[in-house]
Amino acid sequence: MNLKDHILLWNHSFIEIIDIRRSSFSGSAADVRYKLPASAFLYVIRGSGKVLVDDYIYEFQSATIIHGGKGMVIEILRIAEALEYYLVLYKSVPILPDRKNLLPLLERSNPFNHQYTFVPGNPLTLFDKLNTMHKEWQKGGALEHLQVKALFYQWAHELLWQLHAQNLEPLRPDPLDLAIRYMQNHYSEPITLEKLAESLGSSRRTLSRLYRILLQTSPAQYLIRIRMEKALDLLLNTEASLHDIAIAVGYPDGYYFGRMFKKFYGASPVKYKNSLQNTERWPEMSSVVARYDIADDVFLRYIDYDNHYQYNSEGALSMFRNTKPSLLLTLLVCFALVLSACSSGTGSSSASGTHAPVTSPSASAGAAAAMESPVADAETRTISTVKGDIEVPANPQRVVVLYLLGDVLALGVKPIGVSDVYEGAAFEAELKDVQKLGSWFEASPEVILSLNPDLIIVPSEDTYEALHDIAPTVVVPFETMTAEERVSFIGQVLGKEEEGKKLFEGFHANVEESKQKLQEAGILDHTISIMEGGNDRSMAVVTRKQFGRGSQVIYEYLGMKAPEMVQQKIDSATGGDGEPVSFEVLAKYSGDYIFRSSYKGMADLTQDPIWNSIPAVKEGRLMEIDFGLSYYSDIYSLNAQLDYIVESLLAAPRVK
Fold this sequence. Notes:
Elements: H1 3-11, E1 13-25, E2 32-35, E3 39-46, E4 49-53, E5 56-60, E6 65-68, E7 73-76, E8 83-94, H2 96-108, E9 116-118, H3 123-139, H4 142-166, H5 175-186, H6 193-199, H7 204-215, H8 219-237, H9 242-248, H10 254-265, H11 269-280, H12 290-294, H13 327-347, H14 361-378, E10 380-385, E11 388-393, E12 399-401, H15 405-410, E13 417-418, E14 435-436, H16 445-451, E15 455-458, H17 461-467, E16 473-475, H18 483-494, H19 497-520, E17 528-533, E18 538-542, H20 551-557, H21 564-572, E19 578-582, E20 593-598, H22 609-613, H23 615-618, E21 622-626, H24 627-631, H25 635-651
Parallel strand pairs: 12-13, 12-15, 13-14, 15-16, 17-20, 20-21
Antiparallel strand pairs: 1-8, 2-7, 3-6, 3-8, 4-5, 4-7, 6-9, 10-11, 17-18, 18-19
Helix pairs in contact: 3-4, 6-7, 9-10, 13-14, 18-19, 19-25
C-alpha cells in the first residue's frame, strides 16, 4: 500500500456507511468467522489475541485497528480473555468526474480492499469519534446517519494522519503462519510443497527452511501429523469406516490410510482403538486416553517466531521417537536367540531319548535370518556428502531413488520406490512393478514414508530437505559430476564400489567397439544434429554435451561433431538447454544426420516443405529417438542409448 495513493483515493471517493456495530467475544467461545459484505474497519476496544483475515494472521491488542476488503473472511481465533470491538462496514465509489483517471490507480492499489493493521499513537481520539458514530447510528434517523458519515470522514482523516505520522505500511503476514493455517483448513485435499509455496508467494526452499528451523520438522511431516490427529479424533469419536476416515483426511483408501496410521501411531487403527477402549475400562489407572477424560485436546497451534507452540510434546509423540531398537538391545536379543538355539540342541540328545521336533529347512532358514538380520540391519557406514557426513546402512535393502534410477539398478540394487518413469525409458520394464512416487523433483513424502526405506538417494538439495527426516538421505549433485564420478559415488553409497568400476569398464569397451563400427562404415567423421519440437515452426537444437536426448553419447563418448555453428556452442557451453531455431534457417544447424526427440503429440512435419528440404531429412538420414529413452543420463540408459544410436546410424542411408 502506497500511503500517498491511499490518501488520494480517499479524497476522490464517495463513502457510504453500511453498518456500525459494537460486539463482544467471550474467551471461552468458539472461533468467530465472518465474511465481510463490504470494506471494514475492526477497532479493538479491549482484549488481545489473533485474527485471521483471508488466511493472513494478525496479532492484536487493545486499540489495534484492522482493515479488510469486501469478500474477505475475518475469523477471530479462540482467546483466553474477553474481547470487545467495533466493526464499521462501508462502501467506496470513485467520484464520477475523476473515475476515469482513478480506475488505473484503483486497479494497481485499492486501499479499500487492502488488509492492514496498526496501533495508533493516539487511540483516544479515534475511539471518541467511533463511540459517537456508533451511538448516532443506533438512533437510525436520516439526520443521525448523515452525521455519522461526516464523523466517519473525520475518523478516516485522523486514521490516515496517524498512519502518515508513524510512517507505517501494512504488516506482511508470517508465511509460516499462513502455511500452517492452510494445512489445517485444507488437510483433506492434495497439498504439494510447490502448490503451497506458490499460493503463499514464497519458494519451496524458503518454506522448507522455515518449517525446519522454526518447527524442527518438514512440511510433509507436519501435514501428516495434522491428518493423523484428525484421523484419530474421527476414529475414537465416530463409527465411520476406515475408508470414510481415509477420504476425510486426504488419503485415497482405507488400506493406504491404515499403513500411514500404523507408521505414525505404531499400531493399526482397529488395534489402536481397541487398546484405548480396553484401557478405558480401568479409569482409576493412568492411561494414554486420560486426556480425553480430563481436558479438551489442544492442537499444537503455532504462535510466533520465538515460541511456536503453546507446549512442546515432541518426546511424547511417536513421530519424534526413534522406534528402531538400539544396537545393544539388538545384540542382546540375538544373544538370547543363540542361547535358546544351543539349549534346544542340547536337549535333543538327552539320555531320556526324547526326540527333538523336526524342523523344516525353510523354518531353519527363517530362524537363522531372524538371528542374523538385526545385526546386519544395525551395521552402518559413514560417507561424506555435500550435506556433511551421513550414516547409511552397510547393506541397504529398502532403497528409494529419485531420477538416478538406472544407476542404482545397474549397480544391482532394485529400489522399492522410484520417481515417475517416462514411457520408453531403458529400465521401464524392470521398474514396472516398483512403487512410483511422483515427479523426481517433487516426489510424495507420504508414500515414501509408508515404504519404510532404509536409504533414500536424491538428485537435489530441495528433495533432500523434503525427505531427509524419513531415512538416511544422500544427495547426488549429478550436474557437477561426470558420469564416472556419479556412478562411483552411488556405488560407494550402496557398498557397490567394485560393481561401479566394472560398469564403466564394460561401457567404455562398448564405446570403443561402436566407434570402430562407425569408422569402418564411414560415419564417424560426419556431423550430427539433435533436435526437438516443431509445433511453433521452430526446433530446439541441442548445444550441450550433457543436455540429454543422446547428446552425451554422441558428442562426448563417440566424439562425433555437430555442424560448425552448433559445435562452437557445444565447445564453449557452460549451461543452457536447447537453442530455438526457426525453420527458415534450420538447414544451417542441420548435420549430415539428425536425431529428433520423439514423443506423443509432437508436430507432424511430414508435409512441411521447409523441413523436407533439409538434406538429412530429404535423403532419409532423419532418425527419431524416443524421449523416454534419451531423457536419462544414468549408466543403464547410456548403454541403451549407445546401442540404439549406433544401430540407427548403421541402418541409415550413407552420405553421398
